[in-house]
Design goal:
Layout lengths: L5 E10 L7 E10 L4 H4 L11 E9 L7 H15 L4 E3 L7 E5 L2 E6 L5 H5 L14 E2 L5 E2 L15 H10 L4 E2 L2
Parallel strand pairs: 1-9, 3-4
Antiparallel strand pairs: 1-2, 2-3, 5-6, 7-8
Length: 175
């Protein structure tokens, strides 16, 4: 079972300067949250799934220069606005993720507090309802919908990034 967000719009960040030219270095998707209340509780006057969406994924390779996330996010929001989107909900995840190695715990995700969202001018509206995550020894999360025999989760690596790029299907290029 693969867990993928319901994507409405997908955008890719293409590096045209560094070799190989035209390499996909980032993906940002806007889509449908798991519950309509995620949108209607914030944007009660907008039509959910049409005028309001959730930022479901923002993934850039580590080698992408500083401030690229904010630049890409701003560009995508302008492109989405041209398609009638008037509100976007984004979530941050402040909890660090670690995995156990032969040398002890290793941080694989430091967590984030939504700094790039606030830099874009988005309002911080508070915390969502807490939920329990099952953390596996390798640092991955066992989602509640995963059953025995499901494929192992992808890693936050170049390979996982490329998988994310393929998963979004049609990718719009940012220029």
């Amino acid at each position: 079972m693969k867990i993928r967000p319901a994507v409405r719009f997908a955008y890719g960040l293409i590096d045209v300067a560094a070799p190989p030219a035209g390499r996909l270095v980032g993906v940002l998707t806007l889509g449908i949250p798991t519950q309509v209340a995620v949108l209607t509780s914030v944007f009660d006057r907008l039509v959910p799934y049409e005028e309001s969406l959730e930022l479901n994924r923002l993934v850039l390779l580590d080698e992408v220069p500083a401030n690229a996330e904010t630049w890409a996010q701003a560009r995508v929001f302008r492109l989405a606005a041209a398609r009638g989107v008037r509100g976007i909900v984004a979530h941050s995840d402040p909890e660090p993720r670690t995995r156990l190695t032969a040398h002890g715990p290793e941080v694989i995700f430091p967590g984030h507090h939504g700094t790039i969202y606030q830099a874009k001018g988005m309002d911080y509206l508070g915390k969502t309802r807490p939920r329990r995550l099952t953390m596996l020894p390798d640092g991955s999360v066992l989602h509640s919908g995963v059953r025995a025999g499901s494929p192992a989760p992808a890693w936050a690596s170049e390979a996982a990034f490329q998988q994310a790029g393929r998963a979004v299907g049609h990718v719009h290029t940012l220029v």
